[in-house]
Amino acid sequence: MNLPYYQNLMEKHQEEFETYFEELVSYNEKVNLTNIVEKYDVFHGVYPEGTVSDHSAVYVDLLDRDSIYEDYSLTDDNVRFIGRNDINSYGRALYWPGTGFEFNFKGTSADVYVNHLTKAAYFNVIIDNGAPNRIQLATGWNSIAKDLTDAEHTVKFIRSSESVDGRAYFGDIRIKGDAPSPTLAPTRKIEFYGDSFTVGYGNIETNMSATKSAVNTDNYYSYANVASRQLGAESSIIAHSGRGIAINYSGSTTKTIPDISVYGDVPTDTDTYEEWDNIK
Question: Are 200 and 221 in contact, with CB atoms under 8 Å apart?
């Protein structure tokens, strides 16, 4: 975001916007007119980028530091990636169980943008090494941290459900606060290769007659992830339900774990991806 852009709004426009914003919020409480009710987002709707650039008054008082979002690219400069990942036409792919990213920032909120979903996808958000908060993603902006104290925080965002039940592709992250920075990588790392046991197949289901799905599979509680945490290590999990080392559950001998484990994101029938660089 370009702050000078917000510092160039005449006082008259500030007053007009304040009146409009107050009336919008008041009316919305009665008829649920819109879900865009934060000042920053409403401002963008009223004054698209560039339309107030000729004005000279200061607007930063209206959109104070805690109300300002800043977008950052999902790259090594801003986050540390956990496990394997890839980039294709849809965006950043986080395919394998437990893959994700982690970053530090000083501020109150953080969002991630989902470019594309194939089906349901669940991720765990862990803030300041606390308990995981499991969320189902939707296309567009997804809140991963909100209403935090205005202080230093660490946010970890890792895949919970298996990608066979829903692929997810990501764009930017959005921060209320200071710029994010990558966390330091742990010294100890473990890479696991496996099938549904390593994925965590249906491991949080309480109804024993239910079938495995994205809803009831959480890699955070798989033996691989649990063992890694107990050992103070970070896991890289190369696992896919039904796939074996020499033969798959279906009896086929193609697209086994050795075949697909060379990729950052498992190719579909129509895509071809580069092999994963193990130096990473």
Answer: yes
Torsion over CA: 136, 178, 92, 237 (sign): negative
Contacts of residue 252, defined as CB under 8 A and 6 or more positions apart, other chains included, come to none
Residue 202's alpha-carbon distances to 72, 91, 99, 126, 255, in angstroms, are 35, 28, 18, 21, 22
DSSP string across 77-113: TT-EEES--EEETTEEE--STT-EEEEEEEEEEEEEE
Q: Which of 106, 98, 117 is nearest to 155 (CA)?
A: 106
User: Is 216 in a helix, a strand, or coil?
Assistant: coil
For 161-211, how does the pLDDT look when each residue is reduced to its tens digit (9 = 90+)? 998 888 999 999 999 999 999 999 999 999 999 999 999 999 999 888 788
